[in-house]
Design goal:
Elements lengths: L4 H23 L3 H18 L4 H6 L4 H10 L2 H7 L5 H18 L4 H20 L5
Length: about 130
């Protein structure tokens, strides 16, 4: 996988935040919020995983194979054929793959958690701070 480590860490944060909002919206049947989360996450994957290597590796194939299949079938059909119930379960598997890749590059569970907590705290402060006049 040829994605930079910093990009993988960013993907992990965004994917976890998006997945948590999608899960929360699914519990309250807000499908519009869930669809927005899916679209946002796909946009981010398209930017950082241009060759589809990360997304395809979760499905057990190469990037070119996935692109070829996407010409004939929808993404939802492909992920169901590879054993995923829905996009949420697929995205959960991608998060696991990203964590595994970070561990392979020398990150420990503690370092991943510390990084996530630090970034989430920073995002929380940005969201709760008052705008300047």
């Amino acid at each position: 996988m040829k994605i930079a480590t910093k990009a993988l860490a960013t993907l992990l944060i965004v994917a976890m935040l998006s997945l948590s909002t999608m899960t929360a919206s699914a519990m309250t049947n807000e499908s519009d919020t869930k669809q927005r989360g899916d679209r946002k996450l796909e946009r981010i994957y398209k930017h950082h995983d241009r060759k589809m290597d990360l997304r395809a590796s979760v499905l057990g194939m190469s990037g070119p194979e996935l692109r070829e299949k996407l010409r004939d079938k929808s993404f939802d059909t492909i992920i169901r054929q590879h054993g995923f119930k829905d996009r949420t379960s697929y995205h959960t598997a991608v998060i696991g793959k990203v964590k595994d890749e970070l561990k392979r590059r020398g990150w420990s569970d503690q370092k991943i958690e510390k990084f996530l907590q630090k970034r989430i705290d920073r995002l929380g402060k940005l969201l709760t701070s008052k705008p300047r006049a």
